Amino acid sequence: MTNGPSRLWLLAVVLFSSFVVQHSAMAQEGLKIQLVSEQTAIVPGQPLTVGLWLEHDRGCHTYWRFPGIVGVPTQMKWNLPRGWKAGELIYPEPERTMMFQIKAQGFDRDVMLRTEITPPANLKAGESVTFSGTASWMCCGKSCHPGSMELSLTLPVAATAEVNEKWHKLLDAERARAERTSDAWSATASENGDAITLVVRPATTQARVSKNQREADKIIAFTEDGWFDSDKPQTIQRHEDGSLTIGLIKADSYLGDHPPKTLRVILRNDEGWLHGGELRCLQMAPRIER
After folding, report:
1. What are the pLDDT digits (tens) for 263-287?
2. Which is deepest, 7, 32, 94, 168, by most CB within 10 Å?
3. CATH number at residue 236
4. Structurally, how many domains does the chain consist of?
C-alpha cells in the first residue's frame, strides 16, 4: 500500500480528467457562501459561534472534512485581530455524494459549518470589531469549481448579546445532527489482506436495531482518515441478535506514516441508532486486529 501523497495526486489527476475543471480565485460557481454569527454582538472574553453557510445550486455539492478518494474539503484560514482565537472548523454529519460516478463524502444539501471565536476580555462596549478569513472550497456538479473568497463579519461589542434567531436555528439543527459515540453500541474490527470486517453489536437496551435486512442495507460507513475506500462496495449482514457485520475494502493510498491502530469510522443510519430515531451518525474507533 502506498503511503505517500504522490499516489493521491496521481489519482486526482486521472479522476479530474473526466471533468471540466475551472479555477477561479473569487468565483462562487455552484454555491453561495456566507460568514454568519449566532449572536448579535461580541461579549468581551466570551466565545461566540460563527458559521460558514453554504447554499448549493441544484445538482452541486461540496466536501466533508475528509472527502474520501476524491474532492477537497471546505476550509477557513482566519485573519483575526490581535488577542483573538479561533477553534477548529466543525463539519456536520457526512453524506454520500457522487462526483461523476465516484462515491465521495460531502454535502448535496445546504450546510452550515461552524467554529468558536474567542475575543479578548479587554474589549470595550460600544466599539465595533471586524474579523475576517479566507474560505476555500471545491464545488462540483457537471464540472468542478475550486474557489476561494475573503469573508468578513462586523459586530458591535456589548456587555450582553442576543441570539440571532435565523442563524441560531440552523446552527442548532447541525449540532443535533452531529456524529457522536454511544455506549449503546460496541464494535470490533479485523483485517485480512485488503478486506476489513467491522462487527457492530448492541450493548445496552438503548440500542435500536435494524428491523430487517432492507433497512440495514441503507447504512453507510464513512472513513475519517482514509484507511478504507469510500468508493468501493460496502456489504452489510444483519444478524438475529441485532448485530451487523460490515465489509469494507482498504484504500489504495493512505496519507499516514503508519497503518492506523484503530478503524476510525462513522456509521450513518437515517433510522437512528437509538430508540426514538436518535443519533443518525454513530462514531466508532475499534482497535484493528491484524
Report:
1. 999 999 999 999 999 999 999 999 9
2. 94
3. 2.60.40
4. 2
